[in-house]
Amino acid sequence: MKMNLMKTNSPEMMKQSIANSLFRHIILLLLLATGSTFASDFMSQLQAADIVRSSNPSLFSSKLAAIRKHLPELSTNELLYLQYLTGYELAFNGEILAGVEQYKEILDSNASNDLKLRAELSIVNEYAILKNWEDGLKYLSSALKQKDSITDQNLKVMSFTVAALFYNALGQYELAREYAEQLINQTELPRQKCLASQLLVESKSKLDELSATSDEFLASKTQCNAANEVVMASIIVATQAELFLKDNQPKQAIKLLEAQFPELQKVGYKTTIGVFYALLSEAYWTLGQEKNAYNHAQKAVAILKIQAPLNGPKTRAYKVLYEYYRSHGDDTAALDAYINYAEADKANLDEIKTKTMAYQLVQHQSIEQQNRILLLNQQNRLLKLQQKLVENESRTQRDLIVALMCVIALLIFSAVQSWRNQRHFRKLAEYDGLTNIFSRAHFTAMAHQLLQHSQQHQESVSCVMFDIDHFKQINDSKGHKTGDWVLRNAAQSSRQLCRHNDLLGRVGGEEFCILLPQTNLKQAKEMAELLRQRLSTLYTSDSGYDFSLTASFGVSDTIASGYKLEGLMHDADQAMYQAKSSGRNRVCCFVVNECNSLENETPLTPSQSNQL
Length: 612
What we know:
The termini are far apart. The protein contains 26 helices and 5 strands. The protein has a 5-stranded mixed β-sheet, with helices on both faces. Among the domains are: about 1-170, Alpha Horseshoe (Serine Threonine Protein Phosphatase 5, Tetratricopeptide repeat), CATH 1.25.40; about 350-430; about 440-610, Reverse transcriptase/Diguanylate cyclase domain (Alpha-Beta Plaits), CATH 3.30.70. Strand 2 and strand 3 form a beta hairpin. It is mostly helical. It is about 70% helix and about 5% strand. Its EC number is 2.7.7.65. It catalyses: 2 GTP = 3',3'-c-di-GMP + 2 diphosphate. Its cofactor is Mg(2+). This is diguanylate cyclase.
């Protein structure tokens, strides 16, 4: 039995530990000691250390150090218990992978089922911190298979807690809600009730099952305040404030956040404080209080650069900074803020995609494993038939033929299912789920290939980017269903005008891009104008509302912008912003020295618009 009994406090690992402390803090509040009771005094000392491991880490480490002086005197069960606590100590001090190895050794040992389950759930927790979603799902699935046979109430609560936390972090909110509801029914402890309420509110809000004024928010905050859990109450407040901002009620969001802020600052939990600053910056900006918005955005960025990599709040704060600098004419700062905003936004989208693909991959592997089990069962049946051949050859031959046909049919079925699954997952990765056109990642990959080929053959390529005008207003006033209708119809109209070798992709929320090979700037502008007219004449009543639908277009080509995708899209994007600045619902072409960058978005005069 191997045990790493030395602690390493490398700054890098400590930083990672601090960055993910919110996730661990929640878990540690609930992982109560559940080991079996032994007469040994060492077992009592181990249990005492287990109890204080989250509330007093230094005392916990000193207790373990004292026990390690008597290693030869410990029984097998005591050594395994010590190994589990050592794994926790390593992970808490930032050596997460070393801690996971300790937990895995326990799973391969003759430890009790309860200790093995604790080790398995701890692995899930650490993999969530490491963002190793695929392996985390596998261990969580294994742990949850035992939930119906768990007799220890603390372990059952721990299982539901880890499941709800992990699924919320993974973005699988329906599963998170299911386990949060079970957790509420399994515990009466105020602290655990508070956490269960916070997890339930988070999952239901992500599923659009709660509005900003839902009574559940008040009930959950009351539950957490009663348990003196300020951090959990603050997370609930942040969730509610985000819904107020989504409903365009910034005053309500500010009122809610500022009422909770003093309590949160007393606790000093930096990550949630950073989230509060980011939400307040957006709320103040929406109200036109630019200085307040700027100050809060600066504070949010300062905190979130150091704390956990919460890309959503960072995206929100950087966007406010970009808008502030741009409105005050500070072009250099605006560009820096925009770059940070774009990087945070991309990181956020990439993380969501990674989580989704991990979940789908594990689901696919589960299906494949079931198919392999079925195939093995068929093979076992075939062996039995071969044994019966000695007793009755004629009857066995007939049964063998039937069995072989079943095996062949099963193999064909498995192959077809595998092919369908692979095709389905490939489509999920390459196509945008809402509009059924290329996703940003796949569009980018295909565009690089197209431009490389065109450059080798000296063929002109044009780029058309367009953005739905006032989309946020449509989405907020008429609902997400209408907004989705707009995006689908915009994609469909674009696809109808595209040739078979044109590339069409959704590169942003309401932003689309078309690459037109063997097309000059004039031809691309004509195509963009046709699309603009088609969008403006769409019969919007089919969406349930009658409203005006327009888009602003920017066109660039490789003659002016070169064969680099970034430059081509950047110039088309600038031309599109010129179209917006000059009144929207129009097409602008990028011309060197006439289309300025993001830092200079002065509205065009009518004569300049005509020239473009």
